[in-house]
Amino acid sequence: MNKIRYIAILFILGLVSPVAAEAPASAETAPGETINGIRLIVGDEPITDLDIIQMEKNIQYLRKNLRISKREAAIEELIERAIIERVARRESIIVSDARIQTEINNQMRARSIETEEEFQEMIKKETGMPFDVWKDTMRISLIRQQILQIMVSVPQPSPKEIEDFYRKNQRQIGMEFLYREIVFPFTPNIAQERKISKKAKDIHQQLSGNPSSFPQVARTLPENVSPYKFAGGLRNWEEIQSIAEEDRILAGVLYNMSPGQLSQIFRDQAGRYRIVFLQAKRPIPLDEVRALIERRLYMDQAEKAFDEWMKKQKEQLTIQRL
């Protein structure tokens, strides 16, 4: 499957190198010189030896788990890009350097990145692609998006499809937690640390014998520094992702608990002792993720529709192998 179709922003672009004339049979070749012969013609788009060589180097970034040789995958990629470029010219679809730079600037702002050098390093780390390959991929993606809009019919996901996806993928969608907490202050002093540690153990022992007293203990315990203290430590339906952004250790403890369970004493990321009581957990409600699921299903259907469109283009277009 072509990796460019799953890039989060789905930007598309094609690369067809300028065509060099095929050298006459009698021409002499200088040491190290590569003769750039034409190997395919897709409609009126030529694909040369150098195009294939370059794409063989890039294909590892664009397609994973190849079931065919690199050369065959490179040729297939170049044929599809040639078709995209050909249709773009016919439909007057233009993606300028300024348009690409605008997309780069938008992504930099969204990620709070100040310099393009930092952005390039981030792209290399996130995608594994050299930046020039990523830019080329983004241009093709932008063209592909416009072709989808004007030439490919993509059905909108139905309410039933959204609900079915939600039911089948609840674990991946995530969970929400309703829980109470007691948070003890951080104490860098050893003597104070011993005092807080003993207090935490005493409170945990008390709660273990009577978990229903958790709200009252959380509300009245002088050592409890939780901002939710006066609500009995209650934290109302928080997504696991949000909890993890606050404290990964807390998220891990809650994730492995059952409703009605009191946690052991544990240290959070800030080094503070915590005790939590899990009242309930549930999948994130459908209404909160409906738009995301709809977008995900639409993208999947757009992918299938584009594949069908590309298949028909290949069938209708003359592709000559020289």
Helix-strand layout with pairing:
Blueprint: E1 38-42, E2 45-48, H1 49-62, H2 70-90, H3 97-110, H4 116-127, H5 131-151, H6 159-168, H7 170-173, E3 175-183, H8 190-209, H9 214-220, E4 234-239, H10 240-246, H11 248-255, E5 261-262, E6 266-267, E7 273-283, H12 286-316, E8 319-321
Antiparallel strand pairs: 1-2, 1-8, 3-4, 3-7, 5-7, 6-7
Helix pairs in contact: 1-2, 2-5, 6-12, 10-11
Give a quick summary of the entry.
By secondary structure, the protein is an alpha+beta fold. 52% of the residues lie in helices and 13% in strands. The longest helix is centred in the last third of the chain and has 31 residues.
Protein traits:
322 residues, alpha+beta, Triger factor/SurA peptide-binding fold, Chitinase A, domain 3, 2 domains, five-stranded antiparallel sheet, three-stranded antiparallel sheet, 12 helices, 8 strands, disordered N terminus
**So, the CATH homologous superfamily of the largest domain?**
Porin chaperone SurA, peptide-binding domain
Secondary structural class: alpha+beta
Number of domains as seen in the coordinates: 2
**Could you give a short account of the major beta sheet?**
5 strands, antiparallel
Mean pLDDT: 86
Shape: elongated
- Per CATH, what is the topology of the largest domain? Triger factor/SurA peptide-binding fold
- Detail the poorly predicted runs: 1-27
- The assigned CATH architecture of the largest domain is Orthogonal Bundle
Number of helices: 12
Helix content: 40-55%
First-residue to last-residue Cα separation = 27 Å
What is the percentage of strand-forming residues?
5-15%
